[in-house]
Amino acid sequence: NLEGNPLKQLPSQLFYHTPNLRSLFMLEIELGGGILTNISVANHHYNMTLEFGYFKRFRYCTYLNQVPKCYPKTDGVSDFEHLLVSIEIRVAVWLVAACTLLGNLTVFWGRFINRDDNKVLSLFIRNLAVADLLTGIYLLVVGAKDLQFRSEYFEHAQDWMGSWQCTVLGILAMTSSEV
């Protein structure tokens, strides 16, 4: 139980000499990747018998994908098996993505066909359509990744969250939101 400690980093060898560690309780600690990477590496290389992990955030469990019982089991959107945990979220993502893409492509087509004299209004409408189109693309990619990782998200979560594709997708979402 390491709760209540103001930990920012841990020595890389700390968990190497704890092969009988069964439970790790770090519920109130905000962790950086280095701490959990050390635990993960130790668990892989030294046959640790870690069975339980209790953390503040669901994403911390992605570092310990070999631990059978890691809590919390979900962040409300994702869980260990699925990027999009519930059928309602999956349906909403695909529905909003389709409507957003179709609707904003229609706006572009309408703006191209109808040459409006009000250039400022036309520019404003096109900018909003681009922002919404970026949201549609974002949702489309999230839905596609959910299908790709279906029933095995936990195996891919850490690689996906650290990938350049996920970073670009986050930039796309942020740009859309800011516009």
From TrEMBL:
Residues 103-179 form the G-protein coupled receptors family 1 profile domain. InterPro entries: GPCR_Rhodpsn_7TM, Relaxin_rcpt. The keyword Cell membrane does not apply. Its main location: membrane. Keywords: Glycoprotein, Membrane, Transmembrane, Transmembrane helix. GO terms for molecular function: G protein-coupled peptide receptor activity. The chain crosses the membrane at residues 91-112, 124-144. One of its GO terms (biological process) is adenylate cyclase-activating G protein-coupled receptor signaling pathway. It comes from the Eukaryota. GO terms for cellular component: plasma membrane. SUPFAM superfamilies: Family A G protein-coupled receptor-like. It is found in: Membrane. This is G-protein coupled receptors family 1 profile domain-containing protein. It comes from Meganyctiphanes norvegica.
